[in-house]
Amino acid sequence: MTFNPTHVNLDSKKCKNSGGVAVSCVVGSVCFSFTGQHAPSTTEVFYNLTAYKRVGSPARSFFFVSGREEEAVTDRLSLTENTPRCRQYEIHIADDIRDKLNPLAFDIAYGLTETREKRQTSGALTPVISDDSPTEFTERLKFSLLCGADEVCQSDLVLTATSDLEKDYIIPGKNTNLRFAVSVENRGENAYETEVHVTYDDSANFIKAESQTPNMVVSCITVVDEPVKGEPRSTVQKVKCDVANPLLSDQTVKFYLDLDTATVVGDNFTVEMNATTTSLELQPSSNVVTAFFKIRLEADLHLTRSSSPEQLFYLMTTPDAEMPSDLEGFTREFAHVYDVYNRGPSSVESSQLTIQFPHLTNEGHELIRVMSIEIFPDDLMQCTATKLQEQPSDLDLGPVSSSGQNITHINCTTVQCHNIQCQVALLAGTQNVYIRITARLNEIIFMALRPNNKLVHLQSEGVVKITSGVAQPDPNWPDAALADTQVVKETAADEESEVAIWIYIVSILAGIIVLVIIIFLLIKFGFFKRKSKEELDELKRMSLAHEPEEEGENLQGYQKY
């Protein structure tokens, strides 16, 4: 079996397959001839032609017969002694062929068509093929490799890869897309089936590959290894990228490789890349790149607060109907709420919320009693409070505020405070947990402290701190808060309303006095004095005397006109 041309030139596509696509092709010629002793002058052979393919791999070539691609052909040929006879077949090369380095193989098997029935019918001996002539053999068709006279391609691949991270660490949830700029350069002869194999921890995911070299397509797929029975599941994910086939001498292909790192876990993250080829690689050490990143957990815990109600009245004329009978003196109820919100991007495995809540006076008298501590959701936080020793005694809050407005503050600088410690469980990004502290103010003790104060600020303080290996960004949202309830004397509003009535009375009296003065001045200057009857008649007579003269002047002017 011979081929024309003798090598496959994949750049030349002179044939069309059954789908009308231009493909590379050659003409294969199968030739037979025979000679022998006491052999007939004519005979007939049958033969099978098969385009060899590896098990599990697609065919690389086909016989084009009657407008269709066939992987095998069976035919017959009549022969005359000492006269060669050939039959030609158009052989198409698969358009998506990958293995362009190893030759194409064609298996040939043949035999004589004389059958047992013919021998029995004729009674004559039939010819047989000599043992010196093999009836099965393989012919090979090489590719035009353009790799010198020896047709051995010696490539020299150089792989480089750089990430788009400015720092050497990944922040899960923030650095959601890790991009590598990958470059594969061939400094040797043609590199066939050039690929880049990427491995990394399976907590990351492959997104896409995007070629940056014009007219070059880089395609990548995730490779899944078959699980081995009895062995643990692999924690490594693999991606195979088809770069070029071949990557020509002095050619460079560049592409982007994107990985999703939003959910990576552990202390570090490693990406390994390896460029491979079926050509003979001269320096394999330049084909490997390893990128190492630390994993930095970063989250911004934001603490906010609120008060309910914002103003708490004391010395109220109406009693609190909801006050339990066993809470004598603790007349006014209020609540402070602290909300811990994780702004992300990472989760926080553990954190601590500390709240300082006013409780006893400096002399040990119970000024404020905590009634309940509620947590929502209750499975995300557990809290404990310190127990302070109560000792009844005379009370004193300290000096009145220096602002001169008779205002003071009840906080941890003026009284003794409960220390409420809360352990926060795993808090994912954009997740929150809040605590509501409901308490009551002892109005009797409060009045003994500052009976003349009309407004007092009752304040608690909260601070949240991350206790796991998670860093806070800089700058960050506030992680401390101050809840404030204004304690207002209800009778102060009544006092202010009485002062307002006197202002109205004074204003009315002042208005009356001013009106009287204005009237007096108008009378003094004769504004209200009327003319006498004689003066009015004289003015009327003078007015009538002027009317004829004015009419005569008007008539004269009209005649002149």
Structural account:
The chain is mostly beta strands. The protein has 4 helices and 35 strands. Strands 26, 28, 30, 31, 32, 34 and 35 form a 7-stranded mixed sheet that branches. The chain is elongated and about 170 Å long. It starts with a strand and ends with a helix.
Structural category is mainly beta
How many strands appear in the DSSP assignment?
35
Shape: elongated
Report the sheet with the most strands, covering strand number, pairing sense and barrel closure.
Answer: 7 strands, mixed
Low-confidence stretches: 393-407, 550-561
Distance between the termini: 137 Å
Please report the number of helical segments.
4
Helix content: 10-25%
Radius of gyration: 52 Å
β-sheet strand percentage: 35-45%
Mean pLDDT over all positions = 84
Summarize this structure briefly.
This protein has 561 residues and is mainly beta. It is built from four helices and 35 strands. The strands form eight sheets. Strands 26, 28, 30, 31, 32, 34 and 35 form a seven-stranded mixed sheet that branches.
